[in-house]
Amino acid sequence: MRATLALLLCFLAFASRARAEAKISDFQIGLDGNQVLASLTLASAFDHRFVARVDSGLPTTIVYRFELDVVRRNWWDPRLKSCTLEVVAIYDAVDRVYTVHFRLDDKLIESRTVHDRKALEAAMTRVDRLPVFSLGNVHDRRRMLLRARAELGSRNVMSFIPVLITTEWVQSDKFRPATSAAPGDNRSRGRPAGSAAAPPAPTPPPPQP
Amino acid sequence: MSLRQLLLRHRKDQRLIVGGLAVMLLLFTAFFYLFLRERDLPAFLVTNRLLLFVLWYANVVLILIVLFVLLRNLFKLLVERHHRILGSTFKFKLVATYIGLSLFPVLALFAIATELLQGSIDRWFNIPLRPVLERGSAVAQALRDRIEQQNLRDAQQVLRETSGLDLRAPAERQRLERLLAELHLDLLSVYEGSEFVQGVVNPQSGMKDLPEPRHAILEEAAAEGEAFQIDTPPGGRGKLLYAAAAADGRPATPAARGARRTVVVAATLLDPALAERTDRLIEDFQSYRQLEVQKDDVRASHLLIFIMVTLVILLASSWVGLYLARRVTVPIQALAEGTRRISGGDLHHRVEVQADDELGVLVDSFNRMTGELANNKELLERGNRDLTLSNQRLAAERALIAAVLQSVAAGVVSIDSEGRIFTCNEAALRLLRQREEEVVGRPVAEAWADPERRKLAALLAEPRPEGGKELHLFLGGEWQTFEAKVTALEGAAGPPRGRVLVLEDLTELIKAQQLAAWNEAARRIAHEIKNPLTPIRLAAERMLKKHRQGEPGLARAIEDGVEIIVREVATLQGMVDEFSRFARMPRPQAARTDVQRLVAETLHLYQNLKPGVEVEARLDGDLTGVTLDAEQIKRALINLLDNAVEATDAPGRVTVSAQRRDGHFAIKVADTGRGIPPEAKEKLFLPYFSTKGRGTGLGLAIVHRIVADHHGSIRVEDNHPRGTVFTVELPGA
Question: Contact B428/B415 with Cβ under 8 angstroms?
Answer without folding.
Answer: no
